[in-house]
């Protein structure tokens, strides 16, 4: 259900918790951003009675909300990408108008990603709703390029042409602004010249000219303000600028009022360019989405939409093309560029039987691929989904700014009214001079008050940080997790697959009375029929064809090893228990890793040491974490103490806990949390498959090796796509710099506004300072936010 009018974040939390506590409800979630409450009923629960209880909870917690109940069964959705959307006010207005459109249940616009999600009510056709919303959007910001998900490029082009008026309003706006600036400059100079010569007629001509410029440049602002007031949306920037400038004209400050409007529009224009540049940089991530797939049907190739391809189909990827779907190479070999997903610029070689993921770019040879996943489940879809939805999980700072701006603007408008009315009443109600002076101060106060610098720049900064991280192969699922990374002081690692490769290899061969090749042969044949990872690593190390016909009796002895007859000889391969049980005299080995002892016809032949290799950059990763101020690094592992201690010593970890089961890892995390404060966050880094409980418990769960791993992407808050632990330090560094930029903008914007507001109240500033405190500060804040896309790697 949608809770229209829900603007209290605290109330939202209370409602969500009360609903989840209902006996009939399995789980509940209230998204404060889009004001949607979703809940899942327990088996046997009455839908109608439960909805009545939920509505009662909402009414008692936050009376007066517009509650709309939606049935998700058979829900139809429409998703539109509004490219070139740079105006935050236009975005709010588009969302507002779209929600009133015929056939729409609800509409939510994510300004960071320019995505408008629409829920249809089925009363009119999808086409009618699409055209209606596209027309609304185009009328509010004419330069938009509207892309509807699920239809072809040709259909999207036709839609844009249909809803676009014959003349280009965006170009017209630019022409009006250009003409207005020139006309204002000429009129201003003429007024100064005329003032010096004292011609009264000249003053009248200047005033008329100023009014003409005002209407040409600011006419759309006046219309928007009127429409918003009609729709009950009073306290926005259009309203503030309109009241302030019209008031200034009424009291005779025509030149100053028109100047405010001209420079306001010029500032908005420059601000739009800055936002568009930042958005374009971020949206380049979306270019990894493949447009077509070359489907092989018999001997023919048919170009189709990737969403039409099914599992098991054969596709062809030509040199220079992007791989459209996940699959296995069945013919050809080539080099592929994986940077779109991993952030790694080094090309990777792929051959027959190798896995390739959607988003890879084929560089130099034809590849034939068998599709293994639908487009919706492919790597590129998951990456796009994460990036597109990242801004829906807002940081506390963003939520604070949203609530702050809701109360800040009306309060300042009230203060402006007090400044304009109370002092002249107290000083001399009959004095026109006093009324003129204080009303002008009140109007100037209005221009300063709009908090657009914060409302626009703070979300943009977080989105830029998430976008920069994504470009570097680090997917962060929301700005709340990006913000949390700033306060991390303890990083807890799983061992296998995180700090080590998770692939067992034969690292040492100790032969006794036989050659190393013979020892490997006996071991390989003994392990040939086993599916154990250790057995597979031995067969792989042998690297020769095995004639299974030479193997006679085969016995797998639980917790001991294997007994097999090979070429008429009895071969034993296993642990010390197996050697002792068969009275074999052997030499115990104290190597780090798993030791497999080999005996042939009752005589000890040697041993193999199998171990998991430490990743190449694990040591560097720990060192980088220490450099950026992480106080403690911990390793939790189910491996034995000897192996765990050896890995911890080599990597210089602070603490290590071994022989742990998954539930015991959670217990250790709980121990680490004891005595911690709000700003002492714990990160757990695992492979996302076996560590879901710990990933969920940690403040931020980071999955390693997420490339192609469904479990990793589902379980974690952050996914490291290239499997390199050193990326964790980069993610934390990105978080810290993003937070610095956010607070720079908050302090700068509020600081300038407070200074100018106080100066205005005491008559020490005019409309020009007010314009800078509004549009100028917003522009500077947006430019500062763009720095989050240009962060250098911290050493």
Automatic annotation (TrEMBL):
Q: How is it placed in the membrane, per its record?
A: Multi-pass membrane protein
* Keyword Nucleotidyltransferase tagged: no
What superkingdom heads the lineage? Bacteria
Q: Which UniProt keywords apply?
A: ATP-binding, Cadmium, Cell membrane, Membrane, Metal-binding, Nucleotide-binding, Translocase, Transmembrane, Transmembrane helix
Indicate the segments annotated as coiled coil, or none if absent.
none
Compartments where found? Cell membrane; Membrane
Q: Which Pfam family is one of this chain's hits?
A: E1-E2_ATPase
Catalytic reaction(s) noted = Cd(2+)(in) + ATP + H2O = Cd(2+)(out) + ADP + phosphate + H(+)
Domain P-type ATPase A, residue spans: 290-388
Question: PROSITE patterns from the entry?
Answer: ATPASE_E1_E2 (PS00154)
Spans traversing the lipid bilayer: 175-193, 205-223, 407-426, 438-463, 746-764, 770-789
Q: State the EC number(s).
A: 7.2.2.21
Name the principal localization, coarsely classed: membrane
Answer yes or no on keyword Glycoprotein: no
Do you know which Gene3D superfamilies this protein is assigned to?
Answer: 3.30.70.100, Calcium-transporting ATPase, cytoplasmic domain N, Calcium-transporting ATPase, cytoplasmic transduction domain A, HAD superfamily/HAD-like
Membership in a protein family: Belongs to the cation transport ATPase (P-type) (TC 3.A.3) family. Type IB subfamily.
Q: Which PANTHER family match?
A: CADMIUM/ZINC-TRANSPORTING ATPASE HMA2-RELATED, CADMIUM_ZINC-TRANSPORTING ATPASE HMA4-RELATED
- What is the name listed in the Swiss-Prot or TrEMBL entry for this protein? Cd(2+)-exporting ATPase
User: What is the source species?
Assistant: Intestinibacter bartlettii
**Mind giving the lineage of the organism this protein is from?**
Bacteria, Bacillati, Bacillota, Clostridia, Peptostreptococcales
